[in-house]
Amino acid sequence: MKCDVCASEATVFLTQIINGQMTTVNLCDACSKAKGVTDETGFGLAEAFLSGGIPETPNASEAVCPTCGFTASQLKKIGRMGCPDCYSTFREGLDNLLKAMHKGTRHVGKIPAKWQTTAPESSHERLDEETPPLSEKKNPSVSESEESGPSLAKLKKELETAVREERYEEAAIIKREIDRIQETDQA
Amino acid sequence: MQFTSLINHPADWMQGSGPHSDVVMTSRVRLARNLRGFPFPGYSQEKQRLELLNLAKPVVEALSEMGDAYSEDYVSLTKIHKQVLVERHLISREHAARSAGCAVVVDARQNLSIMINEEDHFRIQGIRAGLDLLNAWSLVDRVDSELEAHLPYAYDPKLGYLTACPTNVGTGMRASVMLHLPALALTEQINPVIKAVGKIGLAVRGLYGEGTDALGNLFQISNQHTLGEKEHDIIASIERVIERVVSSELNARQKLLEDNPIMLRDQVGRAYAILRHAHILSSKEALNLLSLLRLGADLDILPDCDRSVLDLLLMEIQPAHLQLRAEIELNAEERDMRRAWLTRSRLRDISSPIEPPPDHPNEGDS
Ligand SMILES: [Zn+2]
Ligand SMILES: [Zn+2]
């Protein structure tokens, strides 16, 4: 087995849930020390790879982002989100947090062109302040029924469009999302 | 484009003069943008950061604004090269501390830089000379729209652009203006001004050091809110505030000329003498004296001193720029000597401050 970092012979093998997926990481002696991986039970491994992360044993009852595995207590400690879907995972209490930080709790600035065509401004103007962010999916073209992102069907359509319009980088990213959803479904 | 040719060309905003450039050095607008389906850089594995980099960098390099751009992965940059980019305000200090999976792309004229895998997947920054936030915004807005056409952004209709830190969510926009406020500092009015600006929800900080200890009398004012306000409104309110700070600074300069011309000439004259003749010059001393020289140039006490010479020097005397020029790592003492040498040679052709009319030393420059 080769070290995932430097490709010399691995001596430390760690298994952990990272981004909602079971991941095995193999490290050589030097790299495991360099990454500060001393806790061989696996906890804290993600953080060892991530700057700014704080090792935290997930509390059984707390919210965990299904997409990236970020926990509510990590959010509290670091003050940053793990991935874009975290905004949906941790929406509870988010409004109060945002109210304290900003002028308002709703975006009124630039809208990406892709969202302008599928989601006319009037349709989300109607969302009242009480609506938790990302939760109620009033606009089907914007958010699908799934909690953690767009649906498979929508993604496949997006993929088709991206390929037809020769936007290959975007296609690659969408393909990646589709793969991830399909893997999770099979698991 | 190579690192050396990028660095050998002074940036557009360093030599150009923009609106109010006697007080406003630069205007910058940066946008935080992320792709959906990827964890934010601070919570991703190196593998994921590399994957994003490999996908996104070609798109960034192909942007119409990035013809003949400088594009570099951080793994192939030395510590000093990164530091030079920080000193040029092209990348952030935080980003410079990172390595694998991080890159920066800068347009040839250094008006635009895009950091990949900073705190957010993308930090798009536009820089302009003087008070010119609107043009900095329209540049990054255009680039952002082009990038968005090729990449799936993490965007939510209610929360706007989703960012790693909730303090940036919404517009993801930070507009900031760098100001030179020597007269407000000399007349001890700087603290009330800082307080007043802070009260209306804008952040003020010294570029090098805080409050009254801000070296070189350089201050940065920026917005703190990104949610609940339109980009144009944020920019308009900053520009309104800056206009007022600029007129207080100009008033303070006028008042110094009228009420304290001898003190003013003394300060500028001493700064000139030291900078022209010193052989050991610390960063702190150089920044503070160059600030006085810039004031002297703006008030025509230094008759033939072009402001842009001083602004360029301000950049060149920073630690990494000195080491880049020397092509070796230098310790603090060596830097102080090189800094003095460079300053002496850059100021060689600037004539000494003009003499006030001998019979009326108190009438200033009338
Ligand atoms: Zn290794
Ligand atoms: Zn997440």
Task: Note down, in words, how this protein is organized.
The complex is a heterodimer of chains A (187) and B (366). Chain A is mostly helical. In chain A, 39% of the residues lie in helices and 7% in strands. In chain A, strand 1 (12-18) and strand 2 (21-27) form a beta hairpin. The longest helix of chain A has 19 residues, at 168-186. The radius of gyration of chain A is 20 Å and the shape is extended. Chain B is α+β, with helices and mostly antiparallel strands and 366 residues long. Chain B has 2 domains: 3-252, Creatine Kinase, Chain A, domain 2; 260-346, no CATH class. In chain B, 46% of the residues lie in helices and 15% in strands. Chain B has helices at 3-8, 12-15, 46-61, 79-87, 93-96, 133-150, 182-186, 190-199, 231-259, 261-277, 283-298, 307-316, 319-326, 332-346; strands at 24-33, 70-73, 103-106, 112-116, 122-129, 155-156, 160-161, 173-180, 202-206, 218-223. In chain B, the strands form 2 sheets. An 8-stranded antiparallel β-sheet of chain B has the order 2-3-4-5-1-8-10-9. In chain B, strands 6-7 form a two-stranded antiparallel ribbon. In chain B, a hairpin with a 3-residue loop joins strand 6 and strand 7. The mean pLDDT of chain B is 91. At the A-B interface, helix 5, helix 6 and helix 9 of A face helix 3, helix 6, strand 6 and strand 7 of B. Bound molecules: zinc ion (2 copies). Residues 65, 67-68, 70, 82-83, 85-86, 89 of chain A line the site of one zinc ion (ZN).
